[in-house]
């Protein structure tokens, strides 16, 4: 089965991809992102390939790209990007993407909005960045 991950190049989404594919339920990942060619994405692609899982990367910079890239998907997981100052843009993108998924008849569309700690900042002095990031990854799963 194929898993389609929207905005899949963030650290949290890559961790979720690792965990979901480790379950054996998915043999293919379609990673959609406006920057799918980051070094970390290639590393994830090699890691998944060593476990027999193929990953297809698609650049999505506008609604037309996204619409084509989502075609034929059954299981989609949506992640916000790691920027924090543009909350209204994130909300608009989530709503538009959910409407597109409904229009395309996607059976399972999950929006996963974990607390974002990819920027390595926290006001909670009782926890270090790594602990907070791991908590976000577990919450996302």
CATH superfamily: NAD(P)-binding Rossmann-like Domain
- Overall CATH architecture: 3-Layer(aba) Sandwich
Number of helices: 5
Could you state the order of secondary-structure elements as H and E?
A: EHEHEHEHEH
Secondary-structure-derived class:
alpha/beta
Instruction: List unreliable stretches of 5+ residues.
Output: none
Instruction: Identify the CATH class.
Output: Alpha Beta
Biggest sheet: strand arrangement: 3-2-1-4-5
The domain tally reads 1
Mind explaining what this structure looks like?
With 141 residues, the chain is an alpha/beta fold. Helix 4 links the parallel strand 4 (75-78) and strand 5 (108-111). The longest helix has 17 residues, at 87-103. It is built from five helices and five strands. Helices cover 43% and strands 18% of the residues. The chain has helices at residues 11-22, 39-50, 63-70, 87-103, 129-140, and strands at 2-6, 28-33, 54-59, 75-78, 108-111. The model has no long low-confidence stretch (mean pLDDT 82).
Which features does this protein show?
single chain, 43% helix, five-stranded parallel β-sheet, alpha/beta, 141 residues, 5 strands, Rossmann fold
Give a brief rundown of this model:
43% of the residues lie in helices and 18% in strands.
